[in-house]
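Budget justification, computational time. The allocation requested in the original proposal was used primarily to generate structure tokens for proteins on the priority list. As evidence of use, we reproduce two of the resulting records. The first is shown immediately below.
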Amino acid sequence: MLELGGKYCRKYPDGSKKVCMDKDVSPGSDYCLSYSFGVGNDFSFDRAMIKYGCEVYAFDQDKFHSHYPSVVDGVQYIKIRLGKERLMMYKLQPDGSMFKFTYRPLDDIQRGLEHQNVTLDYLKMDIEGAEWDIFSESI
């Protein structure tokens, strides 16, 4: 197991993820694809995956992410959320404006990126407790 990414917050590590790099399960040397859902403001795991030769796509969406560019430190950044189904939700913001959240299931995202026939080597989800719902209903 290799611990990748993360930073310290109030003297405690936060955001790092453990990844199995055993020879029989790690990606081959030809190509590696990583999806990272729920990045928040921490791209450290995603940058670490790039160092291992992976093509990395990070996904998250809220009003704070609206100014992020489509590429952050070599990571392809897409402003959508992982969901059980295709869904648009609107939330009233404190300033009175409405913010639109876009949810897509994994297979829809893969199709949109033309990855439906590509092995997804690493799938990282940090989506505030919705991980098991997503697994049981759409993956």
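The second record produced under the same allocation is shown here.
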Amino acid sequence: KKEMQWHRWSTEIIPALLPIFLELLHLSDNLCTISHLQQECECGSNIKDLRVVCVSFGGLETQLICSCSAAIQLLCIGFFPASPLHPTLAVDVNMLDFVNELFVCGAPNNTAWCNALEEFLRQCKYQLDKGHVL
């Protein structure tokens, strides 16, 4: 089962998501501004039969989407699915970018957390100065 899931991610889902993600990066100034893409489901149905819990910095929200192209529809609204087919959980790509920056900074301490936060905000064109956001 895990091998089939890896195969689906690597040969179907990720290649289909890559152009959408690149467009999302472009339109959102590298994820610094919220930008959603319009994407219709593949079947053309208006039936939204899949309930997905979406995790973001703002909290949890539930999205109803069509199950035919769930990963594509989720990415178009800025969320990455937790599974390739019929996901029930998705995470904000901005949050994933932040967590990636945190792991790049490395050391498991407060300094790493602060460095990651400052770098993340810097990439979004914010600047921290003496405890204030400029």
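A brief technical remark on that second record: The longest helix spans residues 2-27.
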